[in-house]
Structure formats: structure tokens, C-alpha cells
Write a structure and sequence with these properties.
two-stranded antiparallel ribbon; 10 helices; Rossmann fold; alpha/beta; 285 residues
Length: 285
């Protein structure tokens, strides 16, 4: 389910404002025009993918060439994910796709390099249904051609930043939630993996965060999504399986949501019904 359509407009307006400012600056400086890169971060079930699609549609209606893809598109291949899991057999945090460490950062950077150099490229796609739901890189890609005006890149942990290990340990010791269910060494493994993601985030000109007023809404949102999937496909996870699934992501939320507050350019807060209850603009955070 998506954010109410009205929220598309302020996001699109914000991005258009940035685009026109960047365009004028590059024109005045007589430099080669680069695409504006926007990171969009939001938890599972928040509707970020739907919003990105809606925003892209608005931007394209302005005759802008928009490329949108997701962090989900650059998960490790099934073979590489199995190898990662086998190399860390006791670490449930990387036993399946999802958390930092389970993405192909090099592939993502290669795509960004092509986009920023205004070269034709293929954005990857990931097939989550492959290998009985374990997933695999799809053989189908989406070809895109310049001239690129705007790149939208979304994902559940987009913008998360590595923390000092002393801070990780402090948060881990204080946790009574899912984070506490994992050993400190396993949590530190994910934290170390997150460091390389800064190479992706450094491409952003702005970072938009879609956040839940209460983090526990994620369980409800993801359960609703699964119920919708069952109605459409006839099969899906049980409510208990959904809770277990979301539990796997909660350690990262416990650790890293605070890092977004330091780098986000625009924050949109949703209530239980996914209605926008707060919108914070730059210089007002």
C-alpha cells in the first residue's frame, strides 16, 4: 500500500526545485551537466516504491529523463549469497538477502558511474521468486539511455551510515529488542560491511527519508502487504512468518535510523494509516 497520493506532490516539487537550481548553476559555470541523484529511504511497507514510481511519472511529465532503480536490484547473486551464508554459518543477519553485506556494491557503483558519465547502461533487476523465494539476480535488465536528468535510488537502508564499534556495543548492550537476539560480533560484521555503502551514498545530491511515526507500524504494514499478496497470488507468508521476517531487519533500524537524521534533506513522517503527519524541509530539521 502506498503513501496517500498527495505526498507525491511535495516530494516532486522538492526534487524539481533542486534540479532547476543545479541546472542553472551548471549553466552559469559552463560545466558538463550531470544528472541530479536523489536517494530515497523508507522502511518495508511504507510505500516508498510506489511513491518513487509516482514521483518519476510527475517528473517525466515535465519532459525530464528519469532513471529509477532500487538497492533491492543489486542484491548478491544466489551463488554469492549462499557463499556468504556458508562462510558465516552462525550469523543469521547475513544468512539471507536483506542487510548490509548482502548487496553487490561494486555493481551498483558501476551503474552509477555510467549514469553520471551520461553513458548508456543497463540497470539490474532482482528476481525474488527464484530458488523458491531465496532470490537471484535476474537475467533481464532494464536498458537506459542518456541524456539523464534525474536519478532516483530507493531502498530500505539507503543512507544508513557505519557507526563506531564502541557506539554499536553501547546500543547493543542497551537493547531489549531484536538487536539483542544477535551476538555482538555478528552485529559488528554488518556494521563493518556498511562502511562500503558510503561510496553509493556519496553520489547523492539529496536524501529523502520516509519514516514511521512508530517503528512497530512496519510489522502491520508488511503484514498488510502479505495479505494483499495472498489475495492476488494465492500464497504467501503467515503472520508469524512476516513477524520473523521483519525481526531480521529491526537490528539495523535500531542501530542506524539515527544516522539518517544527520544527513537527510527532507523527512516525511507517516502515521499508522500511512498518512503524512509531518514534513520537514531543509534547514528546518
Amino acid at each position: 500500500m502506498a503513501i496517500r497520493p498527495a505526498s507525491t506532490d511535495p516530494i516532486a516539487k522538492y526534487i524539481l526545485g533542486l534540479y532547476h537550481k543545479a541546472f542553472i548553476e551548471q549553466e552559469n559555470a559552463q560545466v558538463r551537466k550531470l544528472p541530479l541523484v536523489i536517494g530515497i529511504s523508507g522502511p518495508q511497507g511504507s510505500g516508498k516504491s510506489t511513491v518513487v514510481a509516482a514521483v518519476a511519472k510527475v517528473l517525466r511529465s515535465k519532459n525530464l529523463n528519469v532513471v529509477d532503480f532500487s538497492l533491492d536490484d543489486v542484491y548478491l547473486t544466489h551463488q554469492d549469497q549462499v557463499a556468504l551464508s556458508n562462510a558465516n554459518p552462525d550469523n543469521k543477519l547475513v544468512s539471507h538477502r536483506g542487510l548490509p553485506g548482502t548487496h553487490d556494491v561494486k555493481l551498483c557503483l558501476n551503474v552509477f558511474d555510467d549514469l553520471l558519465q551520461q553513458k548508456p547502461t543497463n540497470t539490474p533487476r532482482y528476481d525474488k521468486s527464484a530458488f523458491q523465494g531465496q532470490g537471484d539476480r535476474s537475467t533481464n535488465t532494464f536498458p537506459v539511455k542518456p541524456y539523464y536528468d534525474i536519478v532516483l535510488f530507493e531502498g530500505w537502508c539507503v543512507g544508513f551510515r557505519q557507526l563506531p564499534e564502541s557506539v554499536v556495543e553501547q546500543i547493543w548492550k542497551a537493547s531489549t529488542g531484536p538487536l539483542s537476539h544477535h551476538s555482538l560480533d555478528h552485529v559488528k560484521f554488518v556494521n563493518r560491511a556498511l562502511a562500503q555503502y558510503d561510496q553509493i551514498w556519496s553520489k547523492f545530491h539529496a536524501l529523502i527519508q520516509i519514516e514511521a511515526l512508530d517503528l512497530n507500524y512496519i510489522y502491520e504494514w508488511r503484514t498488510q502487504q502479505e495479505h494483499d499478496l495472498i489475495q492476488k497470488k494465492g500464497s504467501g507468508m503467515t503472520d508469524a512468518q512476516v513477524r520473523q521476517f521483519v525481526d531480521g531487519y529491526m537490528p539495523a533500524y535500531e542501530l542506524y535510523l539515527r544516522t539518517l537524521q544527520q544527513t537527510r534533506s527532507l523527512a516525511i513522517t507517516l502515521n499508522r494509516d500511512r498518512k503524512v503527519v509531518n514534513l520537514q524541509e531543509p534547514n528546518k530539521l
